[in-house]
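Quick one, T. Sequence first:
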Amino acid sequence: LAFAIVMAKWFSNYEPFTELTTPKAFHDLGKLMYGFVILWAYASFSQFLIIWSANLPEEIPWYLHRIRNGWQVIGIGLMIFHFFVPFFILLSQKLKRKKHLLVWVAGYMLVMRFVDLFWHIIPSFAPHAFHLHLFYFIPVFAIGGAWFAAFFWLLQGRSLLPLPDNSYEAVTGEL
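C-alpha cells:
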C-alpha cells in the first residue's frame, strides 16, 4: 500500500490522474495505511503472545534469537518506529490530505518494512551477534531492481485507468 501511495503521487503529476488524485483520495489511502499499521502490530503481537504463553519449545528459539545478542534493539525499534510513530503520525487528518507529506510517511513505512524483514530473516544466520554485511543488501537490490524493471516494463502497455465496461450494454441493450 505504501508503494501504491508513492505511485499514486507520481502519477498525479500526469494527465488524466491530476483530477483523479484528490486530497480526499489520498486521505482515504492514508486511512487505509493507518489500518494496516494497526493490523501489522496486532498480528505481530498476537503471534508473539500465543507462542510465548503456550511455551512451545519448537517455536520459542525463534524469538530467543531475536531478543538476545543485540537483536533486541531492532525488535524494540520496530515496536517504536514501525508501530507507534506511524500510528501517531497517521492520526493527523491534515497530513493524510497532503500528497507530499503522505508520500514521505509511505516511504518511511517501506524502509521500516525492510528493517522488519531484516529482523525476521538475518538472526537465523547470525544468532550470536548483531552484524551487518554487504551480502545482506545485494539480494534486496537485485530482486527489487528486477521487480521494478518488470513493473515499469509491464506498466507501459497497460491502461492506467479502468476502461468502460460495455458488457452490460451488449447483453441488455440498456445503459
